[in-house]
Amino acid sequence: MKFKSILLFIVTALMLTSCMFTEEIYINNDGSGKYALKIDMSPMMESVKDMSVKDSLKDPQVLDTVVLFSTILEENKDSISKLDADDKLIIEALKDLKLHMQVDEEKGKMLMDFNLEFTDISELKNMQEKIAKAQALNEKKKEDKGMPSTADVDYLFDGKTFERKVTLKDLSDDELEKMGQASSFMEGGIYKVIYHFESKIKSVSFKNAQISSDKKTMSIEVSMDSLIKNPKLLDFKVNLK
């Protein structure tokens, strides 16, 4: 699958209603771990299937593939070399990212699973924004940045305290209007975070966080439209024993 097609899937996913977004991180005591962003667009696929007229001459699309972003970057190294320093850093930050895509039109299934192993959790800063910016660069739309990012999302961990730190950005009136429109598009969508730790959890600042029976996993679920309106909903700390 071509770079342009892959990134089109990504951006489309970020603008669809009734999708389930799951941000899952495994965090080791030394700060290393595994990151995954899972996007389930199956409800959208089911809606499209129900509304569309079936074409008996066309076989339903079935796709199950793993895409290595390192390969994509190698294939596009000539165009990447012409970017300015900041844009190069954005693209190169995705070199270890893997994307597993599964599509089955007949079953109404569409899943995207981004995976990254990291040595330090600071590597995850603004990961979703990096992916979106890569798409804008590929489409050569520097003057049209599309959906604005409303906040910086950073991850901090010192072995005892984990923090998902959200810092709001100053937005123009046009950007605020775009975010209001996005909120209505995302109605019915869910954003879920699941974090796994090696040590047991002592406390979580998020009031309704769910803690597993072994005290090593926590999960939070919020609606996408409320998260777009207030990104600081997912600004919280986890204290470990």
Topology, number of strands: 12
- How large is the radius of gyration? 19 Å
- Low-confidence residue ranges: 141-146
Global shape: globular
Q: Helix fraction?
A: 25-40%
- Number of distinct helices: 8
N-to-C CA distance: 46 Å
pLDDT averaged over residues: 80
The order of strands across the largest sheet is 3-4-5-2-1-8-11-10
Helices and strands, in N-to-C order?
A: HEEHEHHHEEHEEHEEEEHE
Tally of structural domains: 1
Structural class: alpha+beta
The largest pleated sheet is described as:
8 strands, mixed
Our estimate of the beta-strand percent is 25-35%
Question: Would you give an account of this structure?
Answer:
The protein has 241 residues and is an alpha+beta fold. It has one domain. The protein has 8 helices and 12 strands. The chain has helices spanning 3-13, 42-51, 69-75, 77-81, 85-92, 127-138, 173-185, 224-229, and strands at residues 20-27, 33-40, 62-68, 98-104, 109-118, 151-157, 161-168, 190-197, 201-204, 210-211, 217-223, 236-240. Strand 1 and strand 2 form a beta hairpin. The relative contact order is 0.17.
